[in-house]
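We read letters as residues; the integers encode the fold. Take this protein.
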Amino acid sequence: MRSTLLVSMLMLSGISAAAAADTTVTIKNFDFAMDVTITPGSTVTWTNLDGEPHTVASIDGLFRSPALDQNDSFHFTFDKPGVYKYICSIHPKMKAAVIVK
């Protein structure tokens, strides 16, 4: 009952009920698992499952991880809408994007 009332109040006020949703991208076989689409305020965590080190470096310089060894992780929170392309600076053929909308 309370949740129904809250949703109704949000709908009447025009406030969006969309919430940030954190996500994980695996790095495996010299590949980022996928492009991801998230909402502003969400955090993406990259985890390297390869036996070789990799980095996560945005093309525009907004974020850059240190070298991630096997099972290491790096995270970044995206506050603004946009398309954020990134590569592995050690293996620049590895490319993907985070889409924030």
About this structure: The domain at 18-100 is CATH 2.60.40.420 (Immunoglobulin-like). The first strand starts at residue 23 and ends at 27. The two ends are 30 Å apart (CA to CA). Helices lie at 2-13.
